[in-house]
Design a protein that fits this description.
Gyrase A, domain 2, alpha/beta, five-stranded parallel beta sheet, single chain
Length: 546
């Protein structure tokens, strides 16, 4: 079956909603879940429960009606050979049980076409700009921004894999009060280097790197009293090197200072004024964001003539659209949560669909070393940097651990666990599965033609469990797409590694039955392909020996 079975089942569900006159009640996108317990099928939907809350009808009855409608249509589609059974369970969940022949087909596709069999053109080259890790250039990257970098980079990888046309951007907030304080901090340290006694303000940057910048200023004999520009360039080079060593790349580095100097901020405010969305009150200019579902109107120009944060952000996002991007994805820290509605409202005022902007809030990170939480203070320079994590655990473990919880959940990063070379370290566990498979394949009987294997011989519980887990790869990527969170990929790879280890511990791969050996070698080769593909999306290495 060439067509993605998930898409085919979703089409059946949509047809059933039309038959039952429920299609106008439910207008959201449909996607299928993977049941946590395989006793409840291979794919599942809670559409009946969602419709229940909208129609005030019992979810169980809605589910029964949907299944009856699907079964009626199913007889006339190729899906009848692949869907073994559809059940209504757990008071309204609709669960789909797939026939083993479907999984055999999917395994065959991986064996013949390799990783290409897993890719889709779901995105249809839709142009997407992912903006992430945009820390103010006032110091080395903290672990909070490192987590945003990992999430944004892997999400962009997944979107690209699914057929979207993806670009990555870092927004450089290189002007404003924090940049002024940075320059002042360097100037004060420079005076101290010259022998002056300085009472250093508590609200200035106190990290060791400020001394380094001051020494660089001293060496270059710079006389300009405003050292902000030099400090920003110095820190930006640090940030770029850290991100490169972390395996994160950007297509664009976008300067807020250049945006303001270009006149685009003034132009977009004039545009909004002509459209009747800006009014004057108390000497300030206000944007009518309440017209676009915000809870109150927002100031864009203060009564002293200075722009608020919102004004350049509106110009910046208009510029994104003008550059040809039709889906904008921003990753922000939790302190920006209250900013979402006003920016979406501004997008609406520009005449764009607010849903063309997706904002992901990435929660903070707690670093634990030897069972103790490490204190953090960015202004005082008392925080764990990305560089420290890379030096201590390496980029592979760092990336995996930063992705091991949902982006919306606080993350606890255990440095000692990340350094362990044992199965309790998740990234080691996954990489070891790949290396173990490579070792088995090296010891196999000569040149095996996997495509000639009789994979229908794979009937044991652990074989079928691994077979089904392989097929879930595409399903997991679809979930990552709909949730805009790559977290599920790390969970899946751990589960896939576990399925492989269970299979290998229960059954001999290189046995006396050459036909069965060939089938099992085909199974583990497909497993290797999927593990390697998943690790590549995470930008983590796939070692052949460990």
């Amino acid at each position: 079956m060439k067509k993605n079975i998930q898409d085919s089942i979703i089409s059946l569900i949509k047809n059933s909603l039309r038959d039952l006159n429920l299609d106008k009640v439910y207008s959201q996108d449909l996607y299928l879940d993977l049941p946590k317990d395989n006793r409840f099928g291979d794919l599942s939907t809670n559409i009946a429960l969602r419709l229940s809350s909208l129609t005030k009808r019992p979810a169980l009855q809605i589910a029964i009606d949907i299944v009856a409608s699907i079964n009626k249509d199913l007889k006339n589609t190729p899906l009848k050979d692949y869907i073994k059974e559809i059940k209504v369970e757990n008071a309204g969940f609709i669960n789909f049980y797939l026939d083993n022949n479907y999984f055999y087909e999917q395994l065959k596709a991986i064996i013949i076409r390799g990783e290409n069999s897993l890719k889709t053109d779901f995105g249809k080259k839709k142009s997407v700009l992912v903006e992430f890790a945009s820390a103010n250039p006032t110091g080395p990257l903290s672990v909070a921004h490192a987590r945003q970098a990992a999430v944004g980079d892997v999400l962009a990888n997944i979107l690209d894999y699914l057929g979207f046309k993806v670009k990555r951007e870092y927004y450089l907030n290189d002007e404003g009060k924090q940049i002024d304080i940075l320059g002042e901090s360097v100037g004060l340290r420079l005076k101290e280097l010259s022998g002056e006694r300085i009472e250093f303000p508590q609200d200035h940057y106190q990290g060791e790197y400020i001394w380094d910048i001051a020494k660089a200023v001293q060496e270059k004999k710079l006389r300009n009293k405003d050292f902000s520009e030099f400090a920003v360039k110095y820190i930006l080079e640090i940030i770029k090197k850290e991100l490169a060593d972390f395996g994160v790349r950007f297509d664009y580095w976008y300067s807020q200072k250049k945006l303001r100097k270009s006149g685009k901020v003034k132009k977009v405010l004039n545009l909004l004024k002509r459209k009747g969305f800006i009014y004057e009150e108390d000497g300030a200019s206000w944007l009518k964001t309440t017209l676009f579902s915000d809870d109150k109107d927002r100031v864009v120009v203060k009564n002293n003539g200075a722009y608020t944060y919102l004004a350049p952000d509106i110009a910046y996002h208009q510029d994104k659209f003008k550059r040809g991007f039709n889906w904008l994805i921003n990753l922000w820290g939790p302190d920006h949560h209250g900013y979402i509605n006003r920016l979406k409202a501004a997008i609406g005022a520009l005449g764009k669909n607010p849903d063309s902007l997706s904002i992901i809030i990435v929660q903070l990170v707690s670093i634990f070393r030897d069972g103790k939480s490490q204190e953090m203070s960015t202004r005082k320079g008392q925080y764990i940097t990305l560089r420290e994590v890379l030096d201590e655990v390496g980029p592979d473990a760092a990336r995996f651990f930063f992705l091991m919880r949902r982006a919306s959940s606080h993350l606890v990063f255990d440095l000692e666990m990340a350094k362990k070379q044992t199965p309790e370290n998740p990234v080691y566990y996954v990489q070891y599965a790949h290396a173990r498979i490579c070792s088995i394949l090296r010891n196999g009987p000569g040149k095996i033609k996997f495509k000639n294997a009789d994979i229908t011989l794979l009937k044991e519980k652990q074989e079928l469990g691994l077979l089904k887990k392989l097929w879930q790869f595409s399903c997991v990527l679809n979930i990552c797409l709909h949730t805009l969170d790559p977290y599920m990929l790390t969970v899946y790879l751990q589960e896939l590694a576990e399925s492989f280890h269970k299979f290998y511990d229960a059954h001999r791969v290189l046995g006396e039955d050459l036909r069965l050996t060939q089938a099992r070698l085909a199974l583990i080769e497909a497993t290797r392909v999927v593990i390697a593909g998943g690790l590549e999306l995470l930008a983590i290495s796939s070692p052949q020996k460990m």
